[in-house]
């Protein structure tokens, strides 16, 4: 029955794509920057349709069963043309579990025989927002929205998971100054990847200056008053915090094919509002490497420091899956902190994009060797609308920690298909 269900959902999505796409294509030739009226704003808009079936397999040494998760995410929406500078976007999300041989509830992580796969069933409005672009080089957005800043280390939408992280509030982006981007947001609600929503008060200040087309200097300040956000691993009951930092990042060209990739970033995290006073830690990342044509190689070092083993630097609003290995053992930083030394290589063979990483994880304090990890991926665009991706993560435990702090051997394998219409 569940296989029949997924076939019906995909067929329905494709039918919507064809019917709505015909409306969009009929008006594409006469599309203008501003709609001529309300009807033109609605019918001359843009279809938002994305289907993403995925199979995820997880083999965790401390679990008697392996997870076998087959899920489908459907995103369907419409973006109107601006009328007097005002545009509206509405996007719905449905995540359907075709198989249930996995645990999708973190509160049952200890009791469940299956490893955790963070893809719960969900049907909701994913994004609903109003844009105003009537001011020069400025976009004002109000409503439920996805936000991704820089490398999504601190603010991201966690779009790797089937349920995305989205925020409710106001954001303003301005590009009036030469080579400069300014960003401000005041957010009042967060929906996380487990489809759980909570109230919060989040203020974001960010400025980026491109001193060349390939090099940028970025300053940021993130203030999160979020009393319901707690973490036993983080050793706090209120993770309200502020992060202030600076980042230099680029791919500086030397000749036609050669570029020098580099990153240098430092941030400080302290308690904020009623946050626990143990919150006091630093973040550091440095990396460098060459890029020749489609191929690159780089070495990076990232440290999320520990406050004498009482608290370690946390990134509760970031897309943490992309950092400290894809096996997701370190989505919450251990109290002892973490030092991640990793090598990345990537490039293209024909249409296929290849990437591989090797990580060594050690603690900032306490002399712990958490383990090593290898991550590899292959992405292939079959057509402009249809992309396939295979990913594999293999974490090997070194020092065996006690109880819930243990980071056991963990292997994960994903096959993802993405249809964009």
Structural class: mainly beta
Order of helices and strands: HHEEEEEEEEEEEEEEEEEE
How many helical stretches?
A: 2
Beta-strand percentage range: over 45%
Please, what is the average pLDDT?
A: 92
- How many individual β-strands? 18
Q: Low-confidence segments, ≥5 residues, pLDDT <50? A: 1-32
Q: Roughly how much helix do the residues carry, as a percent range?
A: under 10%
Instruction: Tell me the Rg in angstroms.
Output: 22 Å
Q: Describe the global form.
A: globular
How widely separated are the two ends? Answer: 27 Å
Query: Mind summarizing the main beta sheet?
Result: 18 strands, antiparallel, barrel
Question: Main traits of this protein?
Answer:
421 residues; mainly beta; 2 helices; globular
Layout of secondary structure:
Blueprint: H1 2-28, H2 38-43, E1 46-60, E2 67-79, E3 86-97, E4 122-132, E5 138-145, E6 166-174, E7 180-191, E8 197-212, E9 215-225, E10 241-254, E11 258-271, E12 280-292, E13 295-304, E14 338-349, E15 352-362, E16 369-381, E17 386-397, E18 410-420
